[in-house]
Amino acid sequence: MIVRSWSERASIQTVVIREMICVWMRFNAKANKCIYYIDIGADTHRV
Predict the structure, then answer these.
(1) 45 pLDDT exceeds 60?
(2) Which end of the chain has fewer surrounding CB within 10 Å, N or C?
(3) Number of domains the chain contains
(4) Residue 40's pLDDT is what?
């Protein structure tokens, strides 16, 4: 059994959240803006 560290859990959770944002943006805006959320961590507010 592999016990993951908090940093690994946080990174995985961040990736999942970014993917959810990506899907939400594409569904609502009908535009592929995933790159803004995937490439940038601290700059996610910019569109």
Answers:
(1) no
(2) N
(3) 1
(4) 52
